[in-house]
Specification:
mainly alpha, single chain, 763 residues
Length: 763
């Protein structure tokens, strides 16, 4: 029994480094499994991690009851990590939305649940790996997994495998280039650590090669903060080695090589940063912007200032995890108009924990770093004269802390970086308590008979494990699958009109049934389920193939669920905006205005909300209020092109020619000429002469675009000038190669039918 428990624990621990390889690739069985969940790059890894940790921890509890040597021992790193998890638990309970803070959502899969799993993992690995042999095996296993991840990254660079995010920034199956960057950052230093410990030249070549590959791939992620962190970490490691090598020639030479390499490569890249080779490379050009950090961090710094305002409001225990969106909305700055409308993270680890846990939570987090760095830098020997860490180890791991800290200045943690950080802490903890021999019995340990463990503890732990596995994972896993199943029904419906056996409505009803199942699971992700339901319901509502009854079924369920969500979180602007947009789509304009009014109250400086309100006033024919609303949005940030455009639209509806002229004067005349919204507004208001003049300007700029000629002809016919429309098409047939057959068909239709078709801007 004891051996079985031990090998369950060890097998589980050694499986965890391979969790990053769980990507939703249907070509592999595990990939197919992960792909069954909503947000597959996030949810699959997290659920597998949690399940393994729960099984491992349960086995470890029984093992620790059997054998005292596997029971946890004290270190300040252990104490700081446990204190941090406890403080954040209190902050989450007392925060804005305790349930969301504790459980998070599919997109992030963080929350306190992730923190407690990390603590359990730390306890187990820090207790079981009590010898250098196990740590060497584990780090080699982790590096082997990183080699496989790196191979995926190299295949993405070669174009063999697709990049999940698109573009050129590789993510190697982790779903985000930032996640890959920090993963590789850790493994650069793990490889160098193993290199420093290796006795054979062949292993040294292998480890140094893997370290260089990881460095190269960090650059290929285009993650500037991590690249800067890597360079700073290597520089810090080299400087520490030089200063504290104390006559160790090998370490001193390694420090010299490291410092020289970083400085020389940085200097060379700085000198060539404006060359065509660098500027024309999407990756190198992005990396070169590191040298103008002020511009690169301009948006981040604005968000950081918002976070500081939130800290002032709740300084002690903060808002709880996953609640930065409340702060972001309340203190939103109009200058952020070009960014995403909803931010749920500060993108700075210090401010993230200040928001989540207040000053107490941040102090607890800072204590972890202080305890770890103190153990590396200030506590070099045990009482018996044996080193806790060699000079090489101290320099490398201090460098890793420096690199990881700089990486976290402009981003936030995820499961992969959390796991690697917890592993590093467990390694340091295990080193600090390693003077307690495996066979030594701690003084205050309690003997527990084997029969008591088997008859009492085993059933209790097994029952607790079953409850944990089910309630922590199963409902939410099932709901994550239900969402994708609903999408699959909708996808099938979109590709078919039904058949003899299955009607179109029946296919849509299948999707609706999956959403109902997802909501009934009792998962932690009801908000995301409701959002997706609302988006699908909006598509069904405007779908001419769907029957009235199925439309009402979707609309009714979506409305009730969105209303329930805003009741559960009445101060969350996002869900009121979702409900407002939903009402706008289904034509409930007064209800939409009510919801957008709430959004404006919760986030008064967000222009997009004012755009929604102003457009609803236009739909209702209240052009005076529309102009006032769009004016307010415009004055928040006059440099915002969309705000100016909508203000012009409102002025057109209000027949305020002077204001239109003022707003469209140079240098904004190009915006006026090129805006499809303004063009369509002129058409709706039957300003045909203006529409035609704007179209003529576009045709002159793009004479070979047939869609512009068709649009002009359509407007001419709409204005009553069928002869002119036919002339436009004949001229286009002569000017544009290959357009003659389509032009002649349109001419025949215009000649035969007096009906008029409203043109759409941009066609």
């Amino acid at each position: 029994m004891r051996d079985a428990l031990k090998w369950i624990v060890i097998a589980g621990i050694f499986l965890l480094p391979f969790v990053p390889l769980l990507a939703p690739d249907p070509r592999f069985p595990v990939g197919w499994f992960v792909g069954q969940f909503f947000f597959p790059y996030i949810t699959g890894k997290n659920f597998v991690f949690r399940i393994i940790v729960e099984v491992v921890f349960a086995a470890w509890v029984l093992l620790a009851l059997y054998e005292k040597a596997y029971r946890p021992r004290f270190s300040w790193i252990f104490a700081s990590l446990a204190a941090f998890v406890f403080v954040i638990f209190l902050a989450d309970l007392l925060g804005e939305t305790p349930a969301k803070s504790l459980w998070s959502n599919y997109e992030r899969m963080e929350g306190w649940v992730t923190l407690i799993h990390l603590l359990l993992y730390f306890i187990v690995v820090g207790s079981v790996f009590n010898s250098e042999v196990w740590w060497n095996r584990f780090f080699n296993t982790s590096l082997a997994a990183a080699s496989l991840v790196s191979a995926v990254g190299l295949l993405q660079i070669a174009g063999v495998l697709k990049i999940a995010q698109g573009g050129v920034r590789i993510e190697a199956g982790l779903g985000n280039a930032i996640y890959l960057a920090v993963y590789l950052l850790f493994h650069v230093f793990i490889a160098l650590h193993l290199f420093a410990r290796a006795k054979r030249n062949g292993l040294r070549v292998l480890y140094s090669t893997l370290a260089l590959i990881c460095m190269f791939l960090v650059v290929q992620t285009g993650t500037r903060g991590t690249i800067l962190g890597l360079a700073a970490g290597l520089l810090a490691a080299g400087v520490y080695a030089l200063v504290f090598s104390k006559g160790n020639t090998v370490v001193r030479r390694s420090g010299i090589v490291g410092v020289t390499a970083v400085l020389v490569l940085t200097g060379i890249f700085y000198m060539v940063r404006y060359t065509p080779f660098v500027e024309q490379s999407p990756i190198l050009g992005r990396v070169a912007s590191i040298f103008s950090l002020k511009d690169a961090l301009s948006t981040r710094s604005t968000i950081w200032n918002l976070a500081l305002e939130g800290v002032k409001e709740r300084p002690l225990l903060g808002w709880g995890q996953s609640n930065f969106d409340y702060v972001f909305d309340a203190h939103y700055k109009p200058s952020l108009y070009a960014q995403e409308p909803w931010f749920d993270r500060v993108h700075n680890i210090a401010l993230d924990w200040l928001i989540a846990g207040g000053m107490i939570g941040f102090a607890a987090y800072l204590w972890i770093w202080i305890a770890a760095l103190y153990s590396l830098a200030c506590k070099p020997n045990t009482s018996g004269g044996r080193e806790y860490f060699s000079i090489a180890e101290r320099s490398l791991f201090i460098g890793l802390f420096v690199g990881y800290g700089i990486h976290n200045i402009a981003v936030f943690d995820n499961l992969i970086s959390y796991f690697l950080f917890a592993t590093l802490l467990a390694f340091l903890h295990a080193r600090l308590v390693r003077e307690v021999p495996h066979t030594t019995v701690p003084k205050r340990s309690v003997d527990i008979r084997a029969d008591v463990v088997e008859r009492v503890a085993l059933p209790l732990v097994t029952a607790a494990l079953c409850l944990s596995l089910y309630f922590v994972n199963v409902p939410s896993m099932a709901a994550a699958k239900d969402i994708l199943d609903a999408f699959e029904w909708m996808d099938i419906a979109s590709k078919t009109n039904g058949g003899a056996l299955v009607s179109y409505d029946a296919l849509l009803a299948g999707g609706l049934g999956e959403f109902k199942s997802a909501l009934a699971r009792g998962s932690f992700a009801n908000q995301e389920i409701r959002e997706q339901l609302a988006l699908v319901a909006e598509r069904v509502y405007v779908d001419p193939r769907a029957s009235v009854s199925i439309k009402l079924a979707f609309i009714g369920l979506a409305e009730s669920e969105l209303q329930r969500q805003v009741q559960e979180q009445p101060n969350q602007a996002r869900m009121h905006a979702f409900l407002g947009a939903f009402y706008k789509i289904i034509g409930e304009k007064e209800k939409a205005l009510e919801q957008f009014a709430v959004v404006e109250r919760l986030s008064p400086n967000k222009q997009r909300t004012l755009f929604d309100i102003g457009s609803l006033h236009i739909d209702q024919g209240d052009y005076v209020r529309a102009k006032e609303t769009f004016k307010k949005a415009f004055e928040l940030a006059p440099e915002y092109g969309d705000a100016r455009m909508y203000y012009i639209v409102a002025a057109l509806y209000a027949d305020d020619a002077a204001l239109v002229s003022e707003l469209s004067a140079p240098p904004y005349d190009a915006l006026y000429r090129e805006s499809d919204v303004i063009l369509e507004t002129h058409y709706v208001l039957k300003h045909y002469d203006i529409v035609l003049s704007l179209l003529d300007a576009r045709i002159e700029k793009s004479p070979s675009d047939p869609q512009l000629r068709i649009l002009k002809a359509t407007v001419q016919r709409e204005s009553g000038d069928t002869t002119g429309a036919i002339g436009t098409l004949r001229s286009a047939a002569n000017d544009i190669s290959g357009f003659r057959p389509q032009a002649e068909q349109l001419i025949r239709e215009m000649s035969a039918s007096p009906s008029r078709t409203k043109p759409r801007a941009g066609e």
